[in-house]
Fold this protein.
Amino acid sequence: MSTIDKDTARKVAHLARIRVEEENLPKLAEQLSGILSFMEQLNEVDVEGIEPMTSVTPMRLKRRVDVVTDGNQQEAVLKNAPDAREGFFAVPKVVE
């Protein structure tokens, strides 16, 4: 069984860009260890020959026609632009 110590929990929190107070690190380490032990349990399940499922009931995912469109959102996109002219983004001229 994998266990996470306080230093590893601190590093994971830093990498995830979340602030965890020092007194909460032991609880975080315990929770991360629980997640890892559950993942180890899942690895023990034999799934050989089992087809991937999207649901417990047989169903086919809805699909749409794969066609290229312009998105029909030119006005909405250009509304975010600081300067738009004639249906395009307007940018300052840069010449060196």
Q: What stands out?
A: The mean pLDDT is 89. Residues 25-43 form the longest helix (19 residues). The longest strand covers residues 84-85.
